[in-house]
């Protein structure tokens, strides 16, 4: 059973490992936890709505450590879909520019990972929260404004292909903070000449923290409710003993 702090302890300060569900925003997940424990809280790295996986949430005095946790390397698993692109580099927009992919060999795919391993320069998606002239890039892009973002240095420690079932390419990536896996999927597809987008993404690790040790926001809610009910039951037993 996963060890957990009580809401009272978390108000003072603690760390909660949350497994964000698909279609939830990171804000949705954190807000549900906040409602459950009624404490000051912040998270250590946004996940896109369609992504699932590990969010580290800090409460109380531990919110001062958020920046430290944000700097930790991250591990992701997912699927790159070859043969098309999307404006958002994932399935938040419709695939377009379909191209043949059947001629691409397994060797081509394994070879393509080499140019995306190590210290590289990466251009973030224009549909991202990065600010451009004081405005969110995704707001500008949705308004039809042409957005140009500068390439940024990131580190891809490991880029492992775990399965190939074209047009799907399954992968595992260990990377530095600031890496956009959506951009990696888009650039990977471009390097193969057929285009690609991120079909599925799950964050599995942040530093030494693992998603296996996390619970969804609603599961945490149930855990704390069970704790509260057990405490009430125990208090009732004590009162009954005193009245005997």
What does this structure look like?
By secondary structure, this protein is α+β, with helices and mostly antiparallel strands. It has 2 domains: 7-70 and 208-243, 2-Layer Sandwich (Pseudouridine synthase); 74-206, Pseudouridine synthase, CATH 3.30.2350. It is 30% helix and 30% strand. It has 7 helices and 11 strands. It has helices at 7-12, 26-37, 66-70, 106-112, 137-142, 181-191, 217-243, and strands at residues 13-20, 41-43, 52-60, 74-82, 118-122, 131-132, 135-136, 152-165, 168-175, 196-206, 209-210. The strands form 2 sheets. Strands 1, 2, 3, 4, 5, 8, 9, 10 and 11 form a 9-stranded mixed sheet that branches. A hairpin with a 2-residue loop joins strand 6 (131-132) and strand 7. The longest helix is centred in the last third of the chain and has 27 residues, at 217-243. The model has no long low-confidence stretch (mean pLDDT 90).
Key terms:
244 residues, alpha+beta, Pseudouridine synthase, 2 domains, nine-stranded mixed sheet, two-stranded antiparallel ribbon, 11 strands, 30% strand
Q: How many structural units, i.e. domains?
A: 2
Query: Strand-and-helix sequence, N→C?
Result: HEHEEHEHEEEHEEHEEH
Question: What is the assigned CATH homologous superfamily of the largest domain?
Answer: Pseudouridine synthase
Provide the CATH architecture of the largest domain.
2-Layer Sandwich
Q: Calculate the terminal CA-CA distance, rounded to whole Å.
A: 36 Å
- Taken from the alpha-carbon principal axes, the silhouette is elongated
Instruction: Determine the mean pLDDT.
Output: 90
Overall structural class, as computed from helix and strand content, comes to alpha+beta
Low-confidence residue ranges: none
What is CATH's topology name of the largest domain?
A: Pseudouridine synthase
CATH class of the largest domain: Alpha Beta
Tell me the helix content: 25-40%
Strand element count: 11
- DSSP summary: helix tally: 7
């Amino acid at each position: 059973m996963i060890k957990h702090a009580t809401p009272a302890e978390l108000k003072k300060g603690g760390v909660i490992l949350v497994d964000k569900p698909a279609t939830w925003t990171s804000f949705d997940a954190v807000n549900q936890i906040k409602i459950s424990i009624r404490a000051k809280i912040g998270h250590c790295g946004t996940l896109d709505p369609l992504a699932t996986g590990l969010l580290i949430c800090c409460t109380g005095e531990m919110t001062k450590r958020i920046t430290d946790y944000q700097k930790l390397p991250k591990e992701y698993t997912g699927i790159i879909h070859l043969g098309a692109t999307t404006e958002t580099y994932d399935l938040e927009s419709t695939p377009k520019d379909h191209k043949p992919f059947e001629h691409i060999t397994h060797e081509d795919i394994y070879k393509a990972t080499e140019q995306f391993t190590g210290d590289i320069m990466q251009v973030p998606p224009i549909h991202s929260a990065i600010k451009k002239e004081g405005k969110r890039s995704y707001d500008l892009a949705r308004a039809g404004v042409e957005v140009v973002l500068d390439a940024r240095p990131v580190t891809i420690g490991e880029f492992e292909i775990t399965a190939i079932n074209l047009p799907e390419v399954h992968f595992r990536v260990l990377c530095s903070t600031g890496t956009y896996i959506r951009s990696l999927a888009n650039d990977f597809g471009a390097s193969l000449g057929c285009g690609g987008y991120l079909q599925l993404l799950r964050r599995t690790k942040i530093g030494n923290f693992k998603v296996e040790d996390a619970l969804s926001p609603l599961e945490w809610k149930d855990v704390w409710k069970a704790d509260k009910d057990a405490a009430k039951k125990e208090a009732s037993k004590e009162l009954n003993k005193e009245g005997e």
